[in-house]
Amino acid sequence: VSRVLAGKMTDIWGDARGLSVLGLGFAIPILDAFGQAPSRIVAGVPFEHGPVVWDYSGRGNATVSIGDERMPFPDGMFDRVIVLHGLEEAGNPRTYLREIWRITAPEGRIVLAASNRAGLWSRATRTPFGHGRPWSRAQLMNLLSSGLFQVTASTSALYMPPMATGLVTSAAEGWETIGRLVAPGLGGVVLVEAVKRLYASPGGGAVAPVTEKVRIARPAASQRRERH
């Protein structure tokens, strides 16, 4: 699972070289994929998980426990923020997103990765994705648009069944390929990328360039194109 999601993130952001990166929720396995290319990586771990030690660089623990809606970071600290299964259990999603907006640098980018309401993983209670509130792609995009973010790209992942058997996990890449072709809307996780804006765009939609490896969402007046 983490390998599939990490691959999606490196497709979107490359290795984030020289950037300041924050992971929220269950993001540590994803952050590992960036290696030591970023200038800073911090993992914000939910307080209820208890103490977590993660030393990605050999320079000491890089985790912070987050137990309330106010995050312990200064304004504009991070160039990139990945939220993996953090939004589903947020008491107030809009307040949670507003804090993410505050700590993201101007023109910084975030990815919300949440359980897909239409996917099998949101029903798998033995996994983190089976708990909390699942989201649809449209709901994530609307939340971001109302929170001074402009959506730039979206995709899906985890088309394999939510079973930890060797037969399933060993064929993860095959499941992803077939799933995107046969049932692109049924991936277990929806990922939506957005860029921080200081002011709302009158027409909405995305106007900023993004990595060439994902398709750019067009302004709201035209139909958005999505890569699944």
What characteristics describe this protein?
alpha/beta, disordered C terminus, 7-stranded mixed sheet, globular, 228 residues, Rossmann fold
Description:
The protein has helices at residues 2-13, 28-31, 93-103, 137-146, 166-169, 172-182, and strands at residues 20-25, 40-46, 63-66, 78-84, 104-115, 149-157, 189-196. With 228 residues, the protein is α/β, with parallel strands linked by helices. It has one domain: 3-Layer(aba) Sandwich (Rossmann fold). The chain has a seven-stranded mixed beta sheet, with helices on both faces. The radius of gyration is 17 Å and the shape is globular. The relative contact order is 0.15. The model is unreliable at 202-228 (pLDDT under 50).
In short:
This protein has 228 residues and is α/β, with parallel strands linked by helices. 23% of the residues lie in helices and 23% in strands. The protein has a 7-stranded mixed β-sheet, with helices on both faces.
